[in-house]
Q: What sequence folds into this?
């Protein structure tokens, strides 16, 4: 969550779906491995779904 928050320079609570997508695209462009991307996606899904009780409509997925 730290990298996600630092990337945008604000609290994840203030970020939405488009921000999550942009962060995923950034990670892919930086050459992140698929297992690391999957771990990041799972962490974001947990944070938004459980911690913040905000569902992002199932679009937090990894690409293959």
A:
């Amino acid at each position: 969550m730290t990298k996600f928050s630092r990337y945008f320079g604000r609290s994840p609570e203030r970020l939405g779906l488009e921000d999550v997508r942009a962060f995923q695209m950034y990670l892919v462009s930086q050459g992140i491995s698929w297992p690391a991307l999957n771990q990041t996606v799972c962490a974001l899904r947990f944070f938004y779904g459980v911690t913040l009780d905000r569902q992002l409509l199932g679009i937090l997925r990894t690409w293959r």
In short: The chain has one domain: 2-51. The longest helix spans residues 34-51. The mean pLDDT is 85. Residues 2-51 form one domain.
